[in-house]
Amino acid sequence: MLVLDHFTRSLLAFRIVRHEPSANDVCIALDDAVLHAGTPPRHMVSDQGSQFQSDYLAWCKRHGVRPRYGAVGQHGSIALIERFILSLKQEFLRRIHVPASERAMLETLAAYQRWYNEHRPHASLDGRTPREMLEAAPPPRERERIEPRALHPIGRAPPARRARGPLGLEIERVGGFRELPVVRLREAA
Question: Is the pLDDT of residue 64 over 70?
Fold first, then answer.
């Protein structure tokens, strides 16, 4: 189960269940998401599964959340979560050996959550990460950049400062996974 914030695209919470999720499982995941976000959302979009009925509606009422449902059989009615699941599969799960133990799988998903929220730029967020959206950071095209070329770039790029010396790439792997790279351009000392 997954809980995403629509505005920032952050993965707020996830749970592994070995059965069809119950309303209680959903409410526990939502409590985790509220704890992570610091506040409950105003609206909640879900499918119309049986777990999104009485107990879920009671949770929504207690937290002042207005529940909304996607259309049955309508592709794209819960598009944000569908797109996230596709990204999770294509970018990560189909490229690794999926752990057999629940503990190892939770650690694996936590690494993806960290990478997705803190380092993965999103086209729908104008190139920002979910964390940058939360922090109201400007889009990358508006930030200061280092210009390594002798001639200034062509186009309407923002001003750049010249590199003081050689540049190098620094690559970090979140959770040790090569599928979750963090690439930074650094000025060599």
Answer: yes
